[in-house]
Task: structure prediction
Amino acid sequence: MAVLIAAAGYVATRPLGGAPAASLPDPGASTSAVGQGVAIGRSAPDFVRASDQEPLLQDLEGTPIHLGDFAGRPLWIVFWATWCTPCQQEASDIRASYHAHRADDLAVLAIDVQEPAVAVRAYALEHD
Result:
């Protein structure tokens, strides 16, 4: 019985569909275009649409964001959402780390990919 319970627990905690992909595909690309990630010591590729090199990221005012804008600076990239409980829980740690390393020119790029800018702006203003 213990073996069955352990096996059920193991299966229940595994991600559906197997392990996640090493990197995210271009939203307009087929799933066969998924890459293998970036080697240690290499620069991360910019967030651009592969077909026309248009930037995929914008700040809350609509200005395009490129990873090159942060060249030479330590950069912490966070994917989050206003409704995400773990994201809300880690926000104070991110804020504290940012303030602790501001003198080192740390930048935090918090990317919300599922919500309109108005919702993200309201959340950011309310939660600093």
The beta strands are 57-58, 64-65, 75-80, 107-112. The first strand starts at residue 57 and ends at 58. Confidence is low (pLDDT under 50) at residues 20-25.
